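To whoever is on call:

I kicked off a structure prediction for a single chain this morning and the downstream step that reads the tokens threw a length-mismatch warning. I double-checked the sequence; it's 203 residues and nothing unusual in it as far as I can see. Pasting both halves so you can look.
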Amino acid sequence: RLNPNTYYLPNAADFSLFNGLQNSNNITTPKEIESISGKVVGYIGSVDHRIDYELLKSIAEHTEWTLLLVGPTGNDFEKSGLDSRKNVVSVGAKPLEQLPTYLNYMDCGIIPFLCNKLTESIYPLKLNEYLAAGVPVVTTNFSTDLNEFATIVEVVSDTRLFDNAVLKQIASDSPAKKLARTEMARANSWESRVKDFWRIVNL
């Protein structure tokens, strides 16, 4: 059993880094995405065994969208055939400090994880990074940690509805929603976690 003085502080995002490019006019477009047009649905992170590839294929069926993947890929990605789709752009792994630039070009950020024993224990750090950048988010319902974000993020339990959720988030975006995302990310920043830590220590 847990000691009654046990506290849980989840992972957090570098808010200043990921929020820094919002409303900036001084952004250089990465060469890999210079030719992208239309709405961009993006994922940042490893494209590996946690990913629902059928869901990504469904996203890629929307030829009016570009599916932008920023992160290392493995054999599962190659087997999926996604790399042969004209509207799928995989740019590989990028240094942390470059990720906000790619996020700036996304109209919606996704977390297309499978729902299983492995993923249910994952705290979605990338969710806070998306939110800090002001990007709308759609995610599968892979973890109970997502409950905290349910009023800000579209959590989809039925993956057949994932595409529609992305469309809805893009179409309904607004400055007010962007501000709400930013404030949620600020509450899940390292600065906020440090304040929580010292509050607990000083109880």
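Update from on-call: the warning came from a stale cache, not from the record. Cleared it. Sanity check on the structure: The helical segments are 15-19, 53-60, 75-80, 99-103, 125-132, 162-171, 175-187, 190-201.
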